[in-house]
Specification:
By secondary structure, this protein is of the alpha+beta class. The chain contains 4 helices and 4 strands, in the order αβββαβαα. Keywords: Endonuclease, Hydrolase, Nuclease, RNA-binding, tRNA processing.
């Protein structure tokens, strides 16, 4: 996932989460906020409860790869993806299906 598609600043994370529009599943939570530009950005949050730095960074890399494979970033929203502990217990393909279902829910509910 290219850097222009990422949310990195702490204040941007806060504003998206404070917007309180989200969809969730047992392994992931996706907060969304509408954006004026026609390009989506995604931030990934993996808490310290999930494991040490190696595990957290591996998880972030996997999530970025999943987004790159299934999403085209042509929508107009910013999103924060919070990874839950169940993510580590599932296979890559199950996690990818969960992420696809979250993106479909966002499009159906028209949060963006």
């Amino acid at each position: 996932m290219k850097k222009k598609y990422r949310v990195k600043k702490a204040d941007e994370f806060q504003t998206i989460i404070e917007h309180r529009k989200f969809v969730s599943c047992p392994s992931l939570v996706l907060y969304v906020k509408a954006r004026k530009e026609d390009q989506s950005r995604i931030g990934i949050s993996v808490g310290k409860k999930l494991g040490n730095a190696v595990v957290r960074n591996k998880t972030k890399r996997q999530v970025r790869m999943m987004f790159q494979e299934i999403y085209d970033f042509n929508e107009n929203f910013d999103g924060i993806l919070i990874v839950r502990k169940k993510f580590l217990e599932q296979s890559y393909s199950d996690n990818k299906k969960d992420l696809e279902s979250l993106i479909k829910k966002v499009k159906i509910k028209k949060y963006a």
